[in-house]
UniProtKB/TrEMBL annotation, chain A:
Keywords: Plasmid, Signal
One protein family per Pfam: SBP_bac_6
Signal peptide: 1-21
Identification of the protein by name: Extracellular solute-binding protein, family 1
The keyword Signal is assigned to this record: yes
Record carries keyword Transmembrane helix: no
Domain of life the protein comes from: Bacteria
Coiled-coil stretches noted in the UniProt entry, renumbered to this chain: none
PANTHER family: SLL0237 PROTEIN, THIAMINE-BINDING PERIPLASMIC PROTEIN-RELATED
Gene3D superfamilies reported in the protein's UniProt record: Periplasmic binding protein-like II
From TrEMBL, chain B:
Protein name: Binding-protein-dependent transport systems inner membrane component
Keywords: Cell inner membrane, Cell membrane, Membrane, Plasmid, Transmembrane, Transmembrane helix, Transport
Pfam (any one): BPD_transp_1
Annotated coiled-coil segments of the chain: none
Native species: Paracoccus denitrificans (strain Pd 1222)
CDD domains for the chain: TM_PBP2
SUPFAM superfamilies: MetI-like
Topology of the protein relative to the lipid bilayer: Multi-pass membrane protein
Length: 440, 576
């Protein structure tokens, strides 16, 4: 043990000596497949500089930065989820550094690439899509779903998976995109009918591609590079982009009080340079460059979000609206869908069964019951106005709430009322649909 | 233990008014305060605060009990834990009985294999399980193809019970086997002389005498299942307490106090269950005076019985080892997707990990080994203080140490960062919170309950009169402990070491917060790195296999040591 102590003490001294040379320390949620090529390219471009990569999942990375702010040892935060950067920015953990780059547009598909206040920068774009397992689809004789709407159909019952928006910032943006694209009530209705077809709502965003790769589920709602990289690793999967998709930047930001701010700036500039953007086309990475010129060297069939035919229905994404109700939407989704998935599934399956039974009969009484059941499944406990009302939204960010806003209750209280609303409605909907199915 | 008692006896001369045991108790209490209670309190005190004003309130607890979802979660957690104890007992009892009661080839191997389910590497284990037992796993694909139906192994609460029992039955197996071995043969012979035999003797004599071990194991299974979040999360069951706490604590930028309220309730309930198991044991004496009789007499099986025993064992092992068989297929397979077996086989994944993993392996052995060593030293000391001394507040040492079971790893990790960040260590070791030694402490604290329960059970079976005899022959207390008590507890201590070591080797949730640089990372962290990308599934599984092999080897070796020790003791016993 003693020898080990001396050895590691020596090793530590060596690493701290290296810190005086040029080490840039980056904390990241990205896999090695992504960080290794960038590390190699950066260290070649800047000889004498070392990129030290510390891997943590996004939550652990954010908590770590929050807890260690007093004696920060990290230069950069490098991750997908824009919401994590918003949290860091709000808490003053991101530095505003003058970073030089050119040729990158301000927005892709309606979503701003960089933080308007200049604290974090988008270096790659990702779209959301539907990933499916070709063997699964063939074995179950299913058509390929092309649009979000398709996933609502009864034939997909039990074949869909997605992660919860509260667990994955990118899933959140997909949920919010549909809410903005279709409107609050219609958007939620879409999500509930899709969720009724789900066999699982996963806790990690990587759980979805894992499930599709294994064939545990047929269709997964995933961020594109999961699908593209899975396919590149040989899994029998394909990815389609629905016409309404969210284009989400993956980001990098310099930490306030960074030990090596100059090196951190160099790395950000390298990421955004044409050279750095090329690295993204590596088959194990498969993320979309934010510099349109990088697509000149892209392989055949590589999606280009700057082209005309890519996601023609992309909406103008309202970042402010999304930001105001961020936690509220997450909580609402968890209460109505994630935690009550069994109840919701039972209700949706009953409605689908009743509809199938009366597809041809023209029984008006049944049709009325089914319509009532559908309305119950779709009913929402709050309106869009409430979702944007600060006295309501700040219930979910209460310790950061503005002092002069009157909030209407505690999160647990609000969630309890939504929960009873949902459980009761799903139960009644199932009852009505069962009645309808029993009619001849 | 010898170390602690020596410090304690030195303390005795310095502070004449405190006994050695009291000094040891105080030192342990300080350790637990510094590395468990205070860091955790720093995180979960928000359960008692008004989120808006920061004032003290009990409102959050009222909210907990008036929320339907939480009440349901509580009931679900309780049901799953109780049922898991039942199923785990059904698995463990035959294995323990057959291997300790009969002359049976391969006993050591079975006991070693029996611990492997505890070593379920994070993430890869989940994938392997769903590839075998999932809705479209191998078994269901075959069933569906040939018989047209599926069995929902992995769905809902029953899925959780199945997976938890398979995962945690070794707690019962290990502690029960250690207990059975400690039963004096003369008890059994006396029963036989009085005409008892077979099942009746097992029910009336053998099992009651093994009760401390069984109860230690069952209490661990109950509390562990109650507090475990890995399995419910992997099966995507959210309506249980531990996952509710986890989901509410780890969301980015959310500060919902309910997560901490649930954590607090988990800790309180664990301590309560422990207290209940104490009540059950109170006033019963399980110690037998004679030792060294080699445990129960072992008899040879008749050929027909042998076949039956092998049948039962193979069936149970096939069931409990299936996740690891899945892991093996994953590690050697190429692409495995919607098919009963992988498309092809390769050793390439092992090639991939070969270059980078030696550091991980070394770190894992050092971290888990040191943590387990700390655990058995503390566990023996606490067991001795609680059972053999009258030090005031001694039960609280046990409660405090056991409460660690209920503390989610992330909470402990955040607590350490909050407590120890910014403290510079001397000798150029850098920041205390990013020093690798802190990972050992975190692992030791998290796995202490396992070692502690095993040591407690072992000490309960040692008769006080043996110590009194030693002391009346003039042995000092310290040398009684060293020469009499600890040797008699060897089996239990080793059982504790093995459980702590095996489970520490694959722990991730606290370490991921504390790993400062990749050269300090253990295997589980390496697995995490691989499992972030689709191409990493094979190499991740290969690393998982490596972890399993290391722990299994360690277990097998310690099993051999026990057997050899026992043989030596029996022989010297006969010579006298």
């Amino acid at each position: 043990m003693n020898r080990m102590l001396t050895l590691s003490a020596a090793a530590l001294m060596m690493t701290s000596a290296a810190a005086f040379a040029d080490t840039v320390t980056v904390v990241t949620s990205f896999p090695r497949d992504l960080t290794d090529p960038f590390k190699a390219a950066f260290e070649t471009a800047y000889p004498g500089t070392t990129l030290e990569v510390v891997s943590r999942n996004t939550n652990a990375a954010v908590s770590h930065l929050q807890e260690t702010r007093g004696a920060n040892t990290i230069d950069l935060m490098w991750a997908s989820a824009p919401d994590a950067f918003e949290v860091l920015k709000e808490e003053g953990l991101l530095a505003k550094v003058d970073v030089q780059f050119e040729g990158i547009p301000d927005a892709i598909g309606g979503y701003p690439v960089h933080d308007p206040d200049g604290t974090y920068f988008g270096f790659a774009a990702s779209g959301y899509g539907i990933m499916y397992n070709t063997r699964y689809v063939q074995a179950n004789d299913l058509p390929v779903a092309q649009e979000w709407e398709d996933l609502k159909r009864a034939e997909y019952n039990g074949h869909v998976a997605m992660s919860s928006p509260s667990r994955s910032g990118t899933t959140h943006l997909t949920v919010e995109t549909v809410l903005q694209g279709e409107g609050w009530d219609q958007g939620w209705a879409t999500w509930k009918w899709i969720s009724g077809n789900m066999n699982t709502v996963t806790e990690r965003s990587f759980g979805v591609p894992d499930a599709v790769n294994s064939g545990a589920t047929g269709f997964g709602i995933v961020i594109d590079f999961f699908g593209l990289a899975s396919k590149a690793s040989g899994f029998p999967v394909e990815l389609v982009y629905p016409s309404v998709t969210a284009i989400v930047p993956a980001n990098i930001g310099i930490i306030e009080n960074a030990p090596n701010q100059e090196g951190a700036r160099q790395f950000v500039e390298f990421l955004l340079s044409p050279e750095g953007q090329q690295v993204l086309l590596n088959p194990a990475i498969m993320r979309l460059p934010v510099n349109p010129e990088a697509y000149a060297n892209a392989p055949e069939g590589f999606p280009n979000p700057f082209s005309e035919e890519f996601a023609p229905g992309a909406i103008e994404f309202d970042v402010d609206k999304s930001g105001v109700r961020y936690n509220l939407v997450n909580s609402l989704f968890d209460v109505l869908v994630t935690y009550r998935l069994d109840d919701l599934r039972a209700a949706v399956a009953a409605v689908q069964k009743a509809e199938a039974a009366h597809a041809e009969t023209g029984n008006e009484e049944a049709a009325a019951l089914i319509a009532e059941a559908r309305a119950l499944v779709e009913a929402m406990p709050i309106t869009e106005e409430q979702s944007l009302d600060p006295s309501f939204t700040q219930v979910f960010t209460i310790s950061r709430a503005e002092p002069d806003t009157e909030v209407v209750g505690r999160q647990a209280e609000v969630e309890q009322s939504w929960d009873s609303f949902a459980v009761e409605n799903y139960r009644k909907a199932k009852e009505l649909a069962d009645q309808a199915a029993a009619l001849n | 233990m010898p170390d602690t008692s020596q410090t304690a006896s030195r303390g005795f001369t310095l502070f004449p008014r405190l006994s050695g045991a009291a000094v040891a108790g105080i030192l342990i209490a300080i350790f637990l305060m510094a590395f468990l209670i205070l860091p955790v309190a720093q995180v979960i005190y928000v359960a008692f605060l008004d989120a808006r004003t920061g004032a003290f309130t009990l409102q959050n607890f009222q909210d907990f009990f008036s929320t339907t979802l939480f009440r349901e979660s509580f009931v679900n957690s309780f049901y799953v834990s109780a049922m898991s104890v039942v199923v785990a007992t059904l698995i463990a009892l035959p294995l323990a009985y057959i291997t300790t009661r009969f002359n049976f080839a391969g006993t050591a191997a079975i006991q070693a294999l029996g611990i492997i389910p505890l070593i379920m590497p994070p993430f890869v284990g989940a994938v392997a399980m769903s590839l075998l037992f999932g809705r479209n796993g191998s078994i269901n694909l075959l069933l569906n193809q040939y018989f047209g139906f599926r069995i929902p192994f992995m769905e809902g609460l029953n899925g959780v019970i199945l997976v938890q029992s398979i995962h945690y039955f070794p707690f019962i197996l290990i502690n029960l086997s250690a207990s059975l071995r400690n039963i004096d043969r003369s008890m059994e012979e006396a029963a036989q002389n009085l005409g008892s035999h077979g099942v009746r003797m097992f029910r009336r004599i053998v099992f009651p005498l093994a009760m401390p071990g069984y109860l230690a194991g069952a209490a661990l299974v109950f509390i562990k299942v109650f507090d475990d979040l890995g399995t419910p999360l992997l099966l995507n069951v959210n309506n249980m307490l531990a996952p509710q706490a986890y989901l509410r604590i780890t969301g980015v930028g959310i500060n919902d106090p309910m997560g901490y309220v649930i954590s607090f309730i988990l800790v309180a309930f664990s301590v309560f269950s422990l207290w209940a198991s104490f009540l059950f044991m109170r006033g019963k004496d399980y110690a037998t005076v004679q030792k060294g009789g080699g445990g129960l007499s072992r008899r040879d099986l008749k050929p027909s019985e042998k076949w039956l025993a092998w049948g039962v064992i193979v069936l149970i092992l096939a069931m409990v080892l299936s996740p690891h068989i899945g892991l093996l297929l994953l590690a050697f397979g190429t692409i495995w997707s919607f098919s009963p077996l992988p498309d092809g086989f390769t050793v390439q994944h092992f090639g991939t990990i070969f270059t980078q993993s030696s550091q991980y392996v070394w770190n894992t052995i050092v971290y888990a080994g040191s943590a387990a060593l700390i655990d058995v030293v503390l566990g023996t000391a606490i067991a001795y203080i609680v059972i053999r001394t009258k030090v005031a507040g001694r039960k609280w040492l046990d409660y405090m140490a056991t409460a660690a079971l209920a503390v989610p790893g992330v909470v402990l990790g955040i607590g350490y960062l909050r407590m120890f960040h910014g403290i510079q260590l001397p000798f150029g070791l850098g920041q205390m919170s990013s020093f690798w030694g802190i990972i050992i402490v975190a692992l030791a604290v998290r796995r202490l309950p396992y070692a502690l329960r095993a040591c407690m059970a072992a000490l309960q079976q040692v008769s006080l009169s043996l110590e009194e005899a030693a002391e009346s022959l003039g042995a000092s207390r310290a040398s009684t402990i060293r020469r009499i008590v600890v040797p008699l507890m060897t089996g239990g201590i080793l059982a504790g070491f093995v459980t702590s070591f095996a489970t520490a080797a694959v722990e991730l949730s606290a370490t991921i917060m504390l790993v400062g640089r990749s050269s300090d990372a253990p295997l589980a962290y390496g697995i995490y790195l691989y499992m972030q990308s689709p191409a990493g599934r094979g190499p991740g599984a290969a690393l998982g296999i490596l972890a399993v092999v290391i722990v299994a080897l360690g277990t097998y070796l310690s099993q051999r040591i026990i057997e050899r020790e026992r043989a030596r003791q029996t022989m010297t016993g006969q010579q006298h």
